[in-house]
Design goal:
Layout: H1 2-33, H2 37-43, H3 48-57, H4 75-88, H5 90-109, H6 112-124
Helix pairs in contact: 1-3, 1-4, 4-5, 5-6
């Protein structure tokens, strides 16, 4: 019974911290993104200042484990952030979202040496990456990709 109460307290604390992060992101969106969307879109200009401010907020490390310098946010909290950012400017969500997909691959499949070297730099935004998912005749429609990897000795 006591263990359950401890978990509830930890969850309340976690929810409170998550809500503060979401509020901070929302304030950032209102002040630093929303006023510039039309200008940047019409000029097809990369929003470097916005990307740098997202790094300052920790968004480039949102889902990276704290062990490697990230925020370690839950999928629910991260989804709320992506939803809120996308509602203001979809392109901006792609900057950190594709970066974090790449980070997840390193965190899941990388060697410990790779993780210790790269993930802290990814988490701060010092090194930024992404993913590429495309091939002829399907663009980014993942269901249509036909390329397969085969071991060379098969």
């Amino acid at each position: 019974m006591n263990e359950h109460k401890i978990i509830e307290v930890e969850n309340e604390k976690s929810d409170s911290e998550d809500n503060l992060i979401i509020e901070s992101v929302n304030k950032f969106l209102e002040k630093d993104v929303k006023p510039y969307v039309k200008e940047f879109e019409s000029q097809d200009k990369y929003p470097q200042d916005i990307a740098d401010k997202m790094a300052d907020l920790g968004l480039f490390g949102a889902t990276i484990s704290p062990e490697y310098g990230g925020l370690g946010l839950s999928a629910v909290t991260y989804s709320k952030i992506v939803e809120n950012v996308s509602a203001v400017w979809m392109s901006v969500s792609g900057i950190f979202n594709s970066h974090l997909i790449m980070c997840a691959a390193v965190e899941r499949f990388g060697t410990e040496e790779m993780k210790r070297y790269y993930l802290p730099k990814f988490a701060t935004g010092e090194i930024r990456g992404g993913i590429a998912l495309t091939e002829p005749d399907c663009g980014t429609d993942l269901q249509s990709i036909k390329t397969k990897a085969k071991k060379s000795w098969e």
